[in-house]
Structure formats: structure tokens, C-alpha cells
Amino acid sequence: MFSIIRDLFKYNREFAVGAVLLGLIVFFSILSFFSPVDPTMLYIEVPDRPPSGEYWFGTNSRGQDMFWQLTFAFRNTLSFGLMVAALSRVISIVVGLLSGYIGGVVDRILMFFNDIFVSLPIFPILVLFYFVLRSDLTTFNLALLMACLGWPFDARLIRSIALGLRHREFTRHAVFSGMSPAKIMFEEHLPYVMPIVFSTAIANMIWAIGLEVTLAVLGFTNINIPTVGTTLYWAINHSAMVVGVWWWIVIPVIIIVMMFIGLFLLTVSLNEYIDPRSRLRRMGG
Amino acid sequence: MAFSEETVREQRDVLTLNGLKAYYQTNYFGVEREVRAVDDVSLSVREDEVYGIAGESSSGKTTLIKTFAAAIRPPLRLIDGTVEYKFGDRVVNPYDMDEDELNDLRWKHVSYIMQGSMSVLNPVRRIKKSFRDFAFEHMDRSRAEFWNAVEDHLKLLYLSPDVLEAYPHQLSGGMRQRVTIALATVCHPEFIIADEPTTALDVVVQKDVLAMLDDIRKKLRSSVVFVTHDMSVHANMADRVGIMYAGRIVEEGPTSELFTSPKHPYTAHLVSSLPQIGDTTRKPALEGRPPNLAEPPRGCRFHPRCPLAIEKCTTDVPPLESVGANHRSACWRSADVRPLTPAVKPKTGESA
Amino acid sequence: MSAILEVTNVSKRFAMGGILSRNYVNAVVDAGFTIEEDQPEVLTIVGESGSGKTTLARMILGLESISEGDIKVAGRSVSGRVNRAQRLSFMRHVQPVFQNPFEAFNPLKEVDRYLQASARVLLGATSRAQVEAAMDDALQKVGLSLAEVKGRFAHELSGGQLQRVAIARALIPNPAILVADEPVSMVDASLRMTIVNLLRDLRDQLGVTVIYITHDLATAYYISDRIIIMQEGYAVEMGPARVVLDAPEHPYAKLLKDSVLPVENAGKSRVQPADRKTAQAAAKLSGTGELVLRDDGRSVRLPRDGDGSVAV
What is the ipTM of this complex? Predict the structure, then answer.
């Protein structure tokens, strides 16, 4: 594992840049655990101070130190994105592999539901859930909800790969060796699907975070939880750009762009690394 | 059986390879690999002859023809050696040519017949268009003259001009392969390279395609380099055969001599293990596996599998030395090689 | 004597084309043969591509549904298998050997996984020692050992070795029948005879019946006891291999034999194009013909005369 990371650092510039960018952001959000302030407390600092030696990222109009505030916001946003991506990956892998390998009736039923989910209008549903659940719409609940909506396209992609694998001779060999369908799917076929899983995971994270920001900016999430979205919500609420408190908006946007670029570069390089073909080439096959 | 037109006459070399080395060099995530696919090959192909190259997969035979057709691209690199063609009085080295000259050389003088006909013929275009795309600019003729020449050429190959109107998928595999041969020979090249042209074909079709290839090269008086792993094809096509093993030529000689008195243990094995109808005696099997060309064995590369190996074989590389007229072998014990079983049983009154 | 494999009047029709214009292609028509339990043999099915030999093999393995007729393995019809237990029981009787040994193993996984699964699931070995003993035992039968194979990936072995591992794997549940579809066509020339000899030894020493599917008449002659020559879905000539191949009677069988490239007169003979007119004419008549048993044990498909009797 260590040698893999070292090799990637040495020979793949994308990986190095991506890892550094993402490492910075993760480090930044981990700082939240050592925060001297409670992010829910208001008016504990002098409001509207520009970035300085004392307040690195300035303070906002609600009297909060933006540096510590953003550590919490990024921790929540990052873990939210990861949660959505991980959960929806599980659903899409299971559906995709089952549908592709078992085929027949199972395939038709699963793809029927898949198509329903593809055609659902996601945004109105999320707004509806906000009005039903209100303060029960915690970060985890929202993540679960979005995971349930974010799998169908990727399940189709995985299914198409599994469909090809089903007709490979080694699959038939595995069947005649008495391997169970579950073993064939999750041990023989899964490695071929992993590159797709990784690259769609990042796309899914970007989608989830983007949607969360949209909902929060419009006020359809629990605005008391600090996230990137709610930070922007409050900034807009206080007309931050109009009154000249630009750092309230510009700094979080810069950091989130850094995060996305980092994530993107990381997947690109990891993808190349775990691709079965390049893996075989390294193994000497 | 008629082969009277093969008169004995002075044959000039058309292709001369000297100390050719071509390696695949890759660096992938820090894993450096060098595969010596062609390692020090010298040979010459004469005018109006069929030179067979035999070898297993990963013996370097395909790399060898790619190298002398100057069709290599990284990670495959020419490390050392020279390639020289002689057409009439013109001596050319494809590695000294620019892209345009090479293109011209490839169609007019040297042509390449590949295994998969589908990779040459565009599946969504009529055969006619493939002919126009590939051959028209090399023929220096007006449009009408060009099509006349194409039709004459098809006639020469006993193909109906109707195939020009067909799409590749409408033709059978054997027919497609014949069309590819027609396409490759339409400019009347002096030199034809055929890479496993019949491997994917059924036995009956294979025979047709081979007969056609033999016919056309006699009519055009071209030299042919014929690559296949199938010794029975060489037996019926080649005038001389070069046996490749692990990137080197281990034996080269007139076809009949290789079958009756091979001078390399690998050839002896290949020839004697060919099963034949009418013969159920147990055929020997060769143990071991072809060597990994990234780390070939020291000395003679065949020594780990060789029944005749001695101490010297494990340390010193045997040179390809003359062991008879037109016959070269790279074996320290070439004098001790005996045919394992008489591959050629004298059958009276029957040929082919 | 009881039959381990009974193929009775089996046909396979593939539907081609769309909903409105549907064509049927007869891949296999009315094939039939029986393999006895205590009489191991090598039964070769020979034909060109499109002759239906692979479809027939796939039907025997239960990979293709049967349009007409029935295939019974140890008295049980293959098309009737539904649940996993029945499927596993079928696999203990019949095992496949695949064409391309490089494709038959997942390139990202160790090759011994397949052996392990066979030993556990098909043979019912439970302890690790039992599993390894079964694996080693099977590998010894093909001239390998567990030490040589354990933890290796497909690309680390040669095609010949992989094919032997695949055969060893198939032997673990002690099947009565191996169905080998072109098992040597992707194996290098110098290693090919190892596999062919091995198939021969399986019959002689282990009493395994091998159904050998090939287009290569020379190896067919070398190892088979019985042969079925197929043309466009029909078995045109079948019987004792040597009898049939020494002097084929059906025009297509003759054509096939004539197409084998001779190696006598190496370097001196010249290839002549095949004459397939009579064979094509015979193929047209196959549909109306009937298999006729000859005194020497072979059956030949002969066309019927105008009055319905078979021309002899």
C-alpha cells in the first residue's frame, strides 16, 4: 500500500497535485476538532473584520470567526459528500452486478426500477422532504435520501460491464468450478467494475455537494448546521457582497474549487492505476 | 505435380537484414521492462522465393516483420542493425526514408497481408472504396485506367469484379481474405509480407487461400515472407524456412531439408510432433515453456527445454552457422541432431 | 452397460432477424450418439465453422437450450435442471475444457482459485488439507503439482500449462465426461502435443471419456476412437475414427481429408484449390438424406432417391 502511494507520487503528477490539494482540505477540516469556538454561537467576535493576522479569514456579519467556521463547514460538507457517494455506490454495484450477471427476469425488474429512478425529478422531491421532515432532516438523513436518488445512471454503467463479463470464458469456468453467483459477482467481476465505481464516485460527490449547496442557499436544509451551503446562505442573507464583506463568499468558493480539482485529479490518476489493463501491464502480463 | 517453371538460376537478394535488434521498452509507474522481441537477426530473402518464418507466439516473428516493414512505433524501438531492400538497381533502407517515401514504398514495392481481413476492410464501405482509398494514389493512373487495372487484377486472381460492389460482411471469411490479398497485390509489389493469413480460416478455405497466394506470387514473380506457426503450411508453401525461437533465428534452410534432416533440436521437435492421418504412434511432447523475453535464459535460449543440452549451452550463445548448402543452424551440437521420428515416410506413387 | 450420455435426435434452431421477418437457422439437425459408462473413449466431432459442432457441445454442457430431442446425462435430462443442487450434480458428471486457456482464467486472480472452488463445492472437501490434497492430486494427473501453480497468475504460465491446469480443475470432481472444445487451437505448436497426449492418457489411465471438438483431422485421427463429421448441422459420416478417416465415403468427409495439408514432400508440393462442388451438392441433399449403417461400423448420410428409398 505504502509503495503504491510512493510510486504514484513519483510517476504521476496528477496524483501528486490532487493528493496535496485534498490533503490540505482534509487537514483544514480536521482542525475543526481543535476549534476553540462553538460554531453555533453568534456574536462572539467583532463582526465584519477583513482577513488579518488575528482573523485569518476575517469575521462575518454574525460575529463568527470565519476560519473556524469554515473548518466545520468543510468537515460537514466533505463527510456529507463521501456518505452520499459511498451509499449510492453500494446500491449501484449491487443492482448493476446482479442485473448484468443474473440477467433475465431479475434484470428486467431491476432495470424497471432503475428507469423509474432515472426519471424522478430529484429537486422537488428533496424540497418536499424538507417540508415534511424539517429539523429531522439531519446531514445523515439528507445523505441517505440523496444516495437513494443518485445511483441509477451508474448502475446502468456497471450493468453494461457485467454483461460483457458474463460472456467471458473465465466466468463460465467459474460456474463450472461450482462458484456461487455471489462469489462470481463480488470476487471475479467486481475488480473490473472498480474503475467505473471510482470515477462515478467523484462525479456523484460533486453532484451531491452541488445539490446540497443549492438547497441550502435557498434555505431548504437545516440552516443551523454549518456547511458550505449554509455559509453561503447566511452570507447572501446578510447581503455580504453588497456591504463589502467579500471574504465571506470568496474564501469558501476558492476552497471548494480547490477541493473539486483535487478530487478530480485524484480519481483520474487512481483510475489509471486500478484499471485492469494497466494493472496487468504492471504485473507483467 | 508441376513445378517445372522453377528453373535454377541466379537469384538476387531482395531483402537483407543485418544484426537486427528491436526491443519493447516500457516504463510504467516505475516498472521498467525491456522485452527483446527480436535479438540479433540476420537473414536475406531472395528474388522470387517464399521465405517462411515459423515460431510460436511471443517468439518475435510478428515483431520481426513489423521491423523490416518499418511499421514500428513506441514502445517498440529499433536498437541496432540494418534493413535493406533491393528493387531493380535501387537500394533502399526504409529507416532512412521520410513518411511520404515510406508510404510509396509500402504499396508499390512492399505490401502486407494481415491475419484479420476485417481490420483492413472498412465494414461500412463497399470493397470498391477500400481499393480506391488504398491503391489509387499509388498507381499513377487515370480513374478509368485504374479500375481497368483493378478488374484485370481480380481476373488474374479468379475473383469476379462483382466483389467490388459488396460490403465486407456480405462475403465469407475466405472470400474476404482473398479480397485482402487482391488489395495487397493490386500494385504488383515485388515483396509481399503475409502474417498468418490463413490462421483464422477453416481447413478447406485455408487450402483455397494458400493456392491463390501461391498462384499470384508466381504470376507477379514477387518474393513472399510467409509467417505462420503452422509447420504443415510451411511444408506446402515455403522454399526456405527460418525457425524463430525466443527472438532469434535458430535454424534456416530449404524446407525439405528442415523436414528430413533438421539441424536444431527445436526444429526436430516441431517437425516430428506433427500428427498425420494414417499415423497413431505416440508423438513426443516438448516440456517446459517458451522463455520470457524480458529475462531470457543465458546462453542458448532453448537449453532449458533441450534434450541435447550440455554445459556449454548454458553459458555461450551458439552462432547461426552454416551446416550445409543454404542451411544454417544455431546449435552447439547441430551434428548430433537426429530427426526424432521419421517425419517423412517414403510413400511411393503418391504425392500431396 | 448403462449409458452415461445419451444424445437423442437433438436439433437446435436459432431465430434470426426481427419481429416481422424471422428466419430460422438450423445449427444442429437430428444429432444422436450414446456414450457408455464403462467404456471410456475419445469421441471427436469434426467440422468447419458453422457446422454446428460447437453448438452441439454447448447443448451437452447445458449452455444452450435444445430445440428438439433430448440429452440425458446419467439418465437425467440436461434441460430439466433447475435448482443449484441439480446443476452441481450435473457438473460432477460433465466438465468442460475451454478453447482459449488465457481467457479461461480471470487475469486478475490466482489460477488456483478455480481448483479450490471445485474441490470445496463439487467434491465436498471441507478442511484445508483435504482441499489441497484434492488439488494436488488432480494437478499430478496432468503432470503438474500444487507447488508450481499455487498463487500464480494466468500470465505467469504458458498456454500449455494453463490448459493443463484447466484440465486438472475439470478432473477434480472425477467426472465421467470432459467436453473439450478446440482445446489446442490456442496453444503453441511446441506445447500442443502435451495436451493431445494428455487427453489420450485421461482415457487410457483414468477412464475419462473425452468429447473432442476440433477442425483438425490429423489430431482427430491421432487420438479418437469414434468420429462424427458434421456439415452445416448434419452429421454426414460417423463411426470408428480410423475406418472413417482412412477411407471416407461421404463427399464432404473426403473433401475435409483432402484439405489436410500433407507434410510428405515438404517444400516440393504445391497447394491446389479444393474442389468442393460434390461436397456442396451433398450438403444440399443432406436434409432429405438418412444415415445408413455400413458393415464396417460407420454410418453415412446418403440422399434418398426419387421413390423415397435410400441410394446405397
Answer: 0.88
